[in-house]
Design a protein that fits this description.
The protein has 8 helices and no strands. The chain is mostly helical. The chain folds into 2 domains: about 30 residues, no CATH class; about 80 residues, no CATH class. Helix 2 crosses helix 3 and helix 6 packs antiparallel against helix 7.
Length: about 120
């Protein structure tokens, strides 16, 4: 997803995604990641916070085993209206250009139970 955002200039970002641009400019709620495996660091700091959590498209993609499965997941989420066409295309592009693991490390079975302290 970051590869897609890198292609947008600041003006386009502000026009298309004003709230995101505001958040990025304010640096509010940012985390300093000091590891190549930054996703795991962020998750360790947010353990026990899954109550009421609704998985995102990225969460579903992180459960996929390969690009074909990820493509099917994107298609499904788009068809069901969980994500719009524009976001689906961004995910496909990122998948193609950066690979499946660019969305984060693979989430294994019982991920939320284990990370939430129940497994």
């Amino acid at each position: 997803m970051y590869a897609v955002l890198a292609d947008l200039n600041r003006r386009e970002l502000k026009q298309k995604y004003p709230n995101l641009a505001k958040e990025l400019e304010s640096h509010e709620g940012t985390l300093q990641v000091t590891s190549a495996d930054g996703v795991d660091i962020v998750e360790k700091t947010t353990e026990h916070s899954f109550t009421g959590y609704v998985p995102t498209a990225i969460d579903y993609l992180r459960r996929c085993d390969d690009n074909e499965q990820a493509e099917k997941t994107i298609n499904y989420l788009e068809k069901k209206g969980e994500i719009n066409n524009e976001y689906a295309n961004q995910l496909r592009r990122t998948l193609k250009e950066c690979g499946l693991r660019s969305f984060g490390s693979k989430k294994e079975d019982d991920y939320y139970l284990k990370k939430g302290g129940y497994g």
